[in-house]
Amino acid sequence: MHSLGVYVINLDGSRDRLQTISQRLAAFDIAFERVSAVDGRQLDLSALTDYEAARAERYMGRSLVGGEIGCYRSHLKVAAQFLSSDARYALVLEDDALPLCNPVELLEKALPDLEKIDPHWRLINIGNNKLKIATPLARYDIGGHDCELVAAHYFPMTTSAIVWSREGARLFIEEHRKIFAPVDNYFRYWLTRTGHGYSFWPAPVTTTEAASEILAASGRARKTNKRKWYYGLAKQYRLFQDKLIALLSKCGLRQPTGN
After folding, report:
1. Buried (b) or exposed (e) across 118-152, using 16+ Cβ within 10 A?
2. What is the structure's pLDDT at 220?
3. What average pLDDT does the segment 125-154 reach?
4. H or E element: which one contains 148?
5. DSSP string of 207-229?
6. How far apart are CA 165 and CA 4, in angstroms?
7. Cα–Cα nearest to 198, from 140, 98, 114, 142
């Protein structure tokens, strides 16, 4: 599919992971461009001009860690690289992605249908591990993997495998001001409110058991990283608000704010 660019986000020095994802994609005869991940583990968060700690504490109930900032910036970087190309769409994989079928073959079939359904679509999550509050649109069988394209009113978490339209990538970069949430939380916040977010279920891509090296030092840190006393309340309020917006959208009682 010549109009589809394929990108793999990989941290410098993570050669084993790059070799593994290369072998997985080669099995489907998929070529890709490597994008050097932003290593946020050593960042001085107090010096970052695009990180808004106060808003993160309000929204997430805690501050962020450097690995989360690095992951967010890595996705900004790959979106910009995609927009500098001639590709119409971008398949972005983190280096722990594990395709269960040929994702390019799936997209060759599904993207023309999605263009007819929603010419303004922005982002597809094809590596989600959960799906809630969605509307089925079309079914596909790729190499024995049967899955449905759905309108994801409650946009799924994880960014191991996503697909951008040029409009979606442009808006992601253009509307970027301050980081106040991990990138998957931001995508849920953004697309649950604007609409134009999609997914497949069951997901055609999963992940290995290996922890993300971009977030390697962050797993433990997130559990204790300056959590506010209201952390649990902030989380429950965030989930309730997003689910309510998604339910209203699914029932046609709320119009998306995007074009």
Report:
1. beebbbbbbbbeebebbeeeeebebeebebbbbbb
2. 45
3. 97
4. strand 145-152
5. E-SSPPSTTTTHHHHHHHSS--T
6. 10
7. 114
